[in-house]
Structures are given as structure tokens and as C-alpha cells.
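Supplementary Methods, section 5.1.

A reviewer requested that the exact input to the structure prediction be made available. We therefore reproduce it here, unchanged from the version used in the analyses.
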Amino acid sequence: MVKILDGKQVAQALTQQVREDVAALAERNIYPRLGIVRVGERPDDISYERGALKRCEMAGIEAIQYLLPADATQRTVIDLINRINQEETLHGCLIFRPMTTQISDAAVRAAVSSAKDIDGITDGSLASVFTGASSGFAPCTAAACIAILDYYGIELTGKNVVVVGRSLVIGRPVAMLMMHKNATVTICHTKTANLPDICRSADILIAAAGKAETITADYCRPGQVVIDVGIHVKADGRLCGDVDFAAVSSIVEAITPVPGGVGAVTTSVLVKHTVSAARRQLLNDDLPLKV
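The structure derived from this sequence is encoded cell-by-cell as follows.
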């Protein structure tokens, strides 16, 4: 029988760990705070924001919302980011992207302080992911994949990992994180020839294609671990991932569900990064604290 890699369990464990760190920091009069920037009323942004706010509350972190109308100018957005950069009581900044068409994504990413970039969107943060340095944070979704594997004791050393997707949000960063854990990684994309054959060769398959139910039974074999990063809404309103769960779960050894998999862990990683950012900025360390 397939093992379901329940993201909710991982999220609960991470949140408890963060609560302990927050309590320890409070004894030093340090209170991690997160600034959230949202432009417009996109339903997916609002949904993620709601989850992030709930997770911050559970972890004991204050989150400040900065909400701008959909017609906000690029100058307005950049000025807001600069204010957050300069606000010493804010230690992390989460920005919902992509924004509206009048706002340059590159300009927004360049404006964020790397020290407060807890979701790995700046060039400095991504560079640290690729070099293995500890100066920046990985994108939360990529880090959530690692957190799930760590929680369930799934070893990466010497394993063949196939990542389907090459974006800077998940595909390439998660590949680098896997390599730092001594996996051998293949990155695939829409132009990859013989994609099903390559996917079947994987010990661990990361589905980050951005297309609903792309990974079918033909892509999988017994013994594999499948991490499904995608989340999509079907015509009937149900959620699904990049993996055809019904077909694949009957074949592989372990799989994350959608919903309740990677997405459930992402907001927990977000608050963990916020606490780490506060420690780095105020204590100049990133070591675990004990109450």
C-alpha cells in the first residue's frame, strides 16, 4: 500500500519548532514580524495570504498586511518595499507575484532587501541557493519539498532525483537543494525528449511542471517517492496537482497528496524563515534556541 506523505504532520512539527524559537527570542525582547505585500485581489494570492496569516498566528509571529489596489503604480510598490526594508521591526517581507502588468517583476525583486527576502525571490537569495551559502533563503516551496523528505526520513544521498520543471520558483532551486544533500539530479522540461522514460528512472520524482495531472502512470514505477508541487482547480471545483494521483498512487511507494501535501508545509517554512531572518539581523546567528 502506498505511503501518503502527509504535509499537515510536517507543518505541525515545523510550527511547534518555530513556536519554541519564538518563545526563546521573546525572552530577549525580540519579536519576529513579517510584512506581507499584496497588489490587487487575485483569489490565489488571497488564499495563500489567509494561510500565511493563520500559520503566523499559530507560531506566535505578528504579520503586517500592506494591501494596494490593482492599479497601483510601480513607484508606489517600490516605495512601499523600501519602507519595509528600512523598518527595523520588520524582519521578513513576503510579496505576492506576479503583479499587475504595469509593474516590472524584475524591479520588484531587485528592490527587496536580501536580508528580509524570506521567500527566495532576489538574485542574492537565489545565488546562495546555488552556491550552498547560508546568507539567503531558498524559495519556501522548494524548501518545503526538502522538509517533507527530511521529516519522513527519506534519504537523498546517492539517489537519482528527477525534477520536472525548471522555473526559478521551484524547479531549479529544489534541484540545487537536492544536490546539496548529495543526490544526483536531472532537470526536465517541456522540451525534454523521452520524458516518461527519464521520470521512470528516478528514485525520487519532483513534479513541478505547472500543468494539471501531467504525470500519469506511464511516468512512474514501483518503489518511487513522488513529491507533487502543483495545485490546480478542476472544472468541477476539486483541487488536483501535477500528478494524476489516482493512477500514480497505485504504483509508487510514497506520494504527497493535493491538497494537504507540499502546500501545507510552505507557510510553515515561511514562518521558520522569518524567525531565522530575525535572528540573523538582531543576533547575527541562525542557531536553534532553547527556552
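The CA atoms of residues 157 and 181 lie 6 Å apart. These observations are discussed further in the main text.
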